[in-house]
Amino acid sequence: MDFTIQSGRMTAVISSAGGELQSLRDEAGREYLWQGDKRWWGRRSPNLFPYVGRCTGGQYTLEGQTYSLDTHGFVRGAELRREQTDGSACSFTLTDSPETRVRFPFAFLYRVSYAVRESSLTVTYTVENRDSRTMYFGLGAHPGFRVPLGEGERFEDYALTFSAPCTPRRVLFSADGYRTGETADYPLQEGCRLPLTHALFDDEAVVLSGTSGVVELRSAAHGLTVDCRDFPLVGFWHPPHTDAPFVCIEPWRTMPARQGVVEDFARQEDLVSLPAGQQWQIGYTITLG
Questions:
Q1: What percent of the chain has pLDDT over 70?
Q2: Distance (Å, rounded) from C-alpha 95 to C-alpha 201?
Q3: Which of 91, 141, 165, 180 is the most core-located residue (most Cβ within 10 A)?
């Protein structure tokens, strides 16, 4: 089921399926969110939990046991419970079940909350460890945005621009989407700008560390800003070797598995390590215009 929240200048629609954002419109009715098309990518803004990316062979280990886990975890395919909705905010939760414990052997609560104010949408993730032991997990976001946003514009009229000059490092991936364990310098125009071309994504996602954490997607006439300073990584993606009319701006807290390594979740250093009974929170904001 879909739920609508709005301010005077923004309307957002969120589905209980995956707690996934479905639409993001400004006061003039312009749609900013990619609307999904299976020719390129059928999703819109999936939430990634309890893992980001691929586990090698779809498997990981924990305390000597082997578990199977799909790419980007299981929240994106789950029906979440609507916890609350008012005119400008809503939240959705998922708790552990026999089905989740087969793949992720912890007692937990996962919550994704949305709140609009003026021209901004803030997305907040809260994870509670309801288990008696430390819980290890990954988390990220995968929103897609229409490019171009205006009639008569081209994909190449847009650029990704960070709020301050930076010297990012690119996380390198194998052709099948696993970390190689290496990084490389990723120079930007004027220290902050990445012009968009479709060929930019022919080697899969561009995942960067060491940025300012605030990035604009903009042409001369239209744009938006994603503030993901809480996240150590930001990825940019659309399907490789295509002319897909969108780009994803992906705040990542954690990374996929290393190539050829079935990761031990207790030893994968970038995963969140949450003690028993504790709560953890992180979020990002999209501002239109």
A1: 100
A2: 35
A3: 141
| 227 within 8 A of 184, measured Cβ to Cβ | no
CATH code of domain 2-288:
2.70.98.10
> Are 141 and 234 within 8 A, CB to CB?
no
End-to-end CA distance of the chain: 28
Cβ–Cβ under 8 Å, residues 161 and 194: yes
pLDDT of amino acid 48: 98
Which pLDDT belongs to residue 79? Answer: 98
